[in-house]
Design goal:
233 residues; alpha/beta; 5-stranded parallel β-sheet; 7 helices
Length: 233
Amino acid sequence: MKNKGLVVLSGGQDSTTTALIAKNECKELHGVTFDYGQKHKIEIKSALKIAKLLNLKTHEVIKIPHILKSTSPLVNKKRKLEKYNFPEEIPKGIEPTFIPTRNILFLTIASNRAVLRSCKIVYAGVCEEDYGGYPDCRRVFIDSMEQSLGLGIFGSVKYIKIKTPLMKLTKKESVKIAIKNCKNMKEFNKIFKETHTCYDGVKGGCGKCHACILRDKGFKEAGIADPIWLLRK
């Protein structure tokens, strides 16, 4: 545990799982959360609670509202969020919730803070398996960003390492690895009760949006009760 790392913490399932992994890999872990004008601020509140539970060395909420413009219902109040009843109903291709250049911007700013904190590793909870068609959640994109950031900051492609421990995992597998990186189930439930995944901003999840559908599927396949289910009305 010699490394110092920085994690992009959205307050969701994947970023929290990634933070748990990073916490066990690093002697010192910092976190950043982005307030980018998303319609639902509940995820920022979740990130603040999780950062405290994980006892991060530092945690900064970076405000960049109204910078990212998109047709995505996550930032566009005129767009309606798609709802589904079953995973099979989710269409192929890029989900309407995709916000172009969001991860490019996030990783750029996160790398700035990583250099400030003397961290050579940036952790991101992106995943190819359940990524909703988002082009910026693929490893090929991460590799490209890693090289560009390294070249642009210190002239070396090896300086900034972007670790994506969930990249090849299904939601079922990410649930299990989250449990593995907690001390016990009590700690797991305490932390994941505070996570927020729902695109509709519903505490405990609406159960119908793309994010809720995939999260529910993963927990059910893992045979684990999601602590947020107790919060659903």
